[in-house]
Amino acid sequence: MNIITISREFGSGGRELGKRIADILGYSYYDREIITEIAKKHDFDEKYVETILESRFPFSMPITYGRTFSYTDATGQQAIELLSTQYKLLREFASKGNCVIVGRCANVILEEFAPLNIFVYADLESKIQRCRERAPENENLKDSELKRRIRQIDSGRAKHQKFLTDRKWGAKEGYHLCVNTSGLEIKSLSPVIAEYAKGYFEKK
Amino acid sequence: MNIITISREFGSGGRELGKRIADILGYSYYDREIITEIAKKHDFDEKYVETILESRFPFSMPITYGRTFSYTDATGQQAIELLSTQYKLLREFASKGNCVIVGRCANVILEEFAPLNIFVYADLESKIQRCRERAPENENLKDSELKRRIRQIDSGRAKHQKFLTDRKWGAKEGYHLCVNTSGLEIKSLSPVIAEYAKGYFEKK
After folding, report:
1. Are strands B28-30 and A99-102 parallel, antiparallel or unpaired?
2. Which residue from A142, B130, B139, B201 lies 20 to 30 Å from A23 (Cα-Cα)?
3. Do the chains contact at A192 and B191, CB–CB below 8 Å?
4. Beta pairing, strands A99-102 & A3-8
5. Residue numbers in A near B185 (CB within 8 A)
6. Of A17, A20, A22, A83, nearest in space to A50 by CA
7. How many CB pairs under 8 A join A and B?
């Protein structure tokens, strides 16, 4: 089974890259699907699942009292349950066949599937430009607001991974390939990265 | 002019990767040639040039006294001269035509040539194994000694770059592509990275 995981900085074009690579290679593609599935299984709103999974971790860690432990609050308990579902779903998807999975710490969770782990990043200027290009028409954020949002989302991703592993999010040692998309077109980049992935799996 | 710079951790196979990419693409290849040229120009031993350029920097920084400045020692003055020759040579090589340059902070020095900057790295185990494979027959270092050597050489490279720029050696933000060679054959990896480089220059 060839599994490609894409971790990415917000605005770096990693999601588009993942989708295009999947299309080129004829692999399945999982991204929002994971959130949708978790939401369905727990009968929660998708946005809620996303919020819980992405931003509540520092506050929802289990706390140990002597030999027992409790959770800081109800959300903590819920987060653990959602995480557990995410964990099972990712393994389910990975077992089905060749696929590209974007985000969700699949690089860490699917370690025993020996995935090809790609990290996609870019300089701040390129990320801001990419965010503007795909923003809804009525969104009119200042640069400073966009920068804050990028920082916030990436910091959430880093925390999410920190909760699951001691491997630092975005540190190149945890990935097989780190791709800087600054000033590059994702459309043009995709065939080359797909080629890399093909070569990687063939030669392993 | 298409310039590819390869920065690499010691034992990661970056040099071999650079040579193979140059061969595949039909580019010139510069590595030891730079040291050889500098040594010739200054009538120094190559080994001496290498030592001065790679390991003396923390001790040979110019020190400012009021409005004038002096050097900490004679080697400091020499280092600056060698650096200046290296600077000129790199620009000379780069101006001649498409090429791959390994090491020598070419990524920083040749910035205005808009090179494709690749960083090659690997986990410690792979680096030790690669060092063993290419060691002379009579070399019989313990793992701990090899680890120390790897650390020392990489730390020299990091300091060398720190002397020239505030961009941190090995930090992915300073490169276009970071390639983890752990467990991979450089021979198999090279055509894919060459393909990436080709795509990168075509689409720029």
Report:
1. unpaired
2. B201
3. no
4. parallel
5. 203
6. A83
7. 71
Burial of A41 (0-12, 13-18, 19+ CB in 10 A): middle
How far apart are the C-alpha atoms of B39 and B188, rounded to whole Å?
A: 34
Q: How far is B47 from chain A (nearest CA, A)?
A: 32
- Please tell me the predicted confidence (pLDDT) of residue B164: 77
Residues of A in contact with B175 (CB under 8 A): 178, 180
B74 in a structural domain = no
- Nearest residue in B to A123, CA atom: B173
ipTM score? 0.81
Containing structural domain, residue B33: 3-45+84-194
pLDDT in tens, A35-44: 999 999 999 9
Residues 6+ apart with CB under 8 A from A131: A10, A11, A146, A149, A150
Q: Which of A147-151, B11-15, B20-24, B160-164 has the lowest mean pLDDT?
A: B160-164
Domain assignment present for residue B100? The answer is yes
The pLDDT tens digits of the residues spanning A15-29 come to 999 999 999 999 999
Give the whole-angstrom CA distance, residue A177 versus residue B180: 6
pLDDT-derived band at A55, boundaries 50, 70, 90: low
Q: Is residue B29 part of a domain?
A: yes
Residue A69 has pLDDT above 60, yes or no: no
CATH of the domain at A62: 3.40.50.300
Q: Is the pTM of this model over 0.80?
A: yes
Each residue's pLDDT tens digit, B146-172: 999 899 888 888 887 887 788 899 999
Judged by CB atoms closer than 8 Å, whether chains meet at B180 and A192 is answered as: no
Domain tally, chain A: 1
Residue B66 in any domain: the answer is: no
Which of A170, A173, A199 lies closest to B188 in CB terms? Answer: A199
Q: What are phi and psi of B52, to 5 degrees?
A: -60, -45
